[in-house]
Amino acid sequence: MTPPPDFPLGPGEDPDDDPFRGVPLFGDLARMLNQQMGRPGFGPRDTARQFAVQVATGGRSEPNVDPLVRIRLEELARVAELHVTRVTGLGVPTAGISLVEPVTRTRWVERTLDDYRDLLDVLASSLATAPDDDGPPDPGDPLAMFGPLMEMMGPMMVGLATGSMVGNLARRSFGQYDLPIPRPTREPVLVVAATVDEFAADWSLPADDVRLWVCIHELAHHAVLDVPHVRARLTELLTAYASGFDPGAADLSDRLGGIDPDQLGDPAAMAGLLGSPDVLLGALRSPAQEALLPDLEAAVAVVVGVVDHVMDTIGNGLLGDYAQLTEALRRRRVEASDADRFVERLLGLEMTQATYERGRRFVDGVAERAGAEAISRLWDEPRNLPTPAEVDAPGLWLARIDLPLD
């Protein structure tokens, strides 16, 4: 097969100054990016939205949500709200007359990019390649080409990474809290109507039962994440984690140092190499993030443990087939693809079965020792959020919060 010609050099470009000479794949890409930079629609936000919609929809147009489905979801959300308020003692924040907003995947992408904007901006800044202050790259180093390439690719790569992340979430999510990330609470809760109904059909489950389960799940999260100190703590931890990546070239070089330089010109080899979450995250994750993970994992476990407790308390009395329904839905949420796991790990959120079981053990332990009403003490004040050790030993948590303040 005849190899494709090099991407043409731009005006004034000297081929002898090309750091990618001899590696056509990267040389063509770098020159293309130089010519694309500055064109309308090339900004990171535009790129993110376009790519996210493409990933979420597979490039196909979506029909609007059926008005009858919209009305039914809004009715079921009212039922869910009454029960969530009764069980948690927390109000469900509302926006106008609508509790939920049944949406397409495209609309989910648009709202999520807005809701996650601050977090995604921090993540993008953290993942950006650090400038090289050591002068020009060593021409004898086969990895030296990555520095200038990544610098030129920066805006596009930020947009593509963000778009891929949000698009993959949109394909799978039932609502807005498949990942327990705080969102604006004075907006209706998103429910992706088509995804919910497709799941009900695939599992031969009553559509209204699945819709009600999803409404309880989403509104319970909405209520818990509206508690000011819960919201503040999770936002603080997620932001600190997102800002903690270390894009230093030395770490990446150490990780990739064993590869054959001849592979650098092989697109298939490079795709396999750079497409590995373990390689990239192992190269970029910092000691500060490793130190932060126990606190973040503990906070997430408590939130999902409480939500599961609320759902079981409500669902067992409200849905006749709750056990079957819950088994199917909870199995689905931990059977994530590699793309889903990559997104979770970028944000410091690995929603595995162990995470849910850990949270549930904490909540059950509190209820067994002090009654279910003691769970609500989590919402009283910031000091009542458990430490990682207390999540695994709820008796310690109960003992500490009963101690008088100094």
Describe the structure.
- This protein is mainly α.
- It has a domain at 59-102 and 177-243 and 286-401.
- It contains 18 helices and two strands.
- The protein has helices at residues 24-36, 44-57, 67-88, 105-115, 117-127, 146-172, 193-202, 207-224, 228-242, 249-256, 267-274, 277-284, 287-318, 322-334, 338-346, 353-370, 388-391, 394-401, and strands at 100-103, 189-192.
- A two-stranded parallel ribbon has the order 1-2.
- Residues 1-13, 17-42 and 249-253 have low confidence and may be disordered.
Summarize the structure.
The chain has 406 residues and is mainly alpha-helical.
Keywords for this structure?
single chain; 406 residues; mainly alpha; two-stranded parallel ribbon; globular
Overall number of strands? 2
* Bulk shape: globular
Number of helices: 18
What's the main sheet like? Answer: 2 strands, parallel
Major sheet: arrangement of strands: 1-2
Q: Which residues form runs of ≥5 with pLDDT under 50?
A: 1-13, 17-42, 249-253
Mean pLDDT: 79
Measured between the Cα atoms of the first and last residue, the distance is 78 Å
Helix proportion of residues, in percent? 55-70%
Order of helices and strands: HHHEHHHEHHHHHHHHHHHH
- Work out the oligomeric state of the chains in this entry: single chain
